[in-house]
């Protein structure tokens, strides 16, 4: 039995060629009403042209949603993730991954607000984003139908897409008539570039791929120092000036970008099973991660810190694979947030030609005791004789194993 066609669809709409084609395709394929949603996540592009394009394609003004979500993005998604020091496969700061649940959340909310029975996205059938969008929507409103045109239509080539656009009077930017050299996704946390000139991992990325950072070799010869203040694991100030979450990340992007900080060339394992090569620029996030680890060094207990480090790969994988709204991610988040109760203080980071290094850190919540660790006279703070019993107890099982092994050989 064929599923009924949707009556109203909320489309995640960028205003670009692909999602404009999707918009028209939804109208012609289903004869449905389309609501567009465009999120400002700090991608650095003017979004009003998306409104004009949607209107040109017949979308009434009340059905066009353009929202500035930068503060919510950093406060409720980026910062909680950074409390965990999350890195996918030990390197990737998850810039694209962490943006998708917020978009999915707003798609579901706008669908409820407008009475839509479906949502649609422009992610392809080869990537991770289709999974992230659809798992998010399923967790928030399982009754919604999700339409993924790239898995449904026969517009399987750039030529067919352009022919469809021309047949339906969809404006085509001149540079879209040839194939783009690579694909770019950007938000306040990072830029992600992949495809075409980047598909061969044996070839170094061309210089023009990088958009947010200068070449570290051409960065200033003078180092720059920045001080980041933290409260309960979240950055709250730069050089003593309190700022909002999005303003902090914006400022760190500017500072890190001019020093070539945060470049990553990675071949990663996609959730769908294939390997892909991406080039990422995360200047502000790289500084933030370094600083957060710096403040944890003096405020986080060893047992708590080591436990956090042990669960981090699982937490990062959940975000990468689209399980932000899963019970297990929320459980891990509760543990992580508990660990951050005393992670407050200031970290000084030095930036120089692509590197970001913690050079000083201090806190009223510090566990660091100079009188215990000093090589000078400690005034009885630590009795070195205590170490003998400590070592004997920890050596006991090793002695028993050694005796057993010697007996077996004899």
From TrEMBL:
Coiled coil: none
Presence of keyword Membrane: no
Family statement drawn from the similarity comment of this UniProt entry: Belongs to the argininosuccinate synthase family. Type 1 subfamily.
Upper classification of the organism: Bacteria, Pseudomonadati, Pseudomonadota, Alphaproteobacteria, Rhodobacterales
Residues bound to L-aspartate: 124, 128-129
InterPro entries, A to Z: Arginosuc_syn_C, Arginosuc_syn_N, Arginosuc_synth, Arginosuc_synth_CS, Arginosuc_synth_type_1_subfam, AS_cat/multimer_dom_body, Rossmann-like_a/b/a_fold
Ranges for domain Arginosuccinate synthase-like N-terminal: 8-171
Ligand binding (L-citrulline): 92, 97, 128, 132, 183, 192, 268, 280
Subunit structure, as described in the record: Homotetramer.
Organism (species): Rubellimicrobium aerolatum
First-level EC class: ligase
Pathway: Amino-acid biosynthesis; L-arginine biosynthesis; L-arginine from L-ornithine and carbamoyl phosphate: step 2/3
Residues the record lists as binding ATP: 12-20, 39, 122
Chain ranges of the Arginosuccinate synthase C-terminal domain: 182-400
Key words of the record: Amino-acid biosynthesis, Arginine biosynthesis, ATP-binding, Cytoplasm, Ligase, Nucleotide-binding
Entry EC no(s): 6.3.4.5
Name of one Pfam family that matches: Arginosuc_syn_C
Compartment(s) where it occurs, according to its Swiss-Prot or TrEMBL record: Cytoplasm
Taxonomy, superkingdom: Bacteria
Descriptive protein name: Argininosuccinate synthase
Keyword Nucleotide-binding in record: yes
GO molecular function, one term: argininosuccinate synthase activity
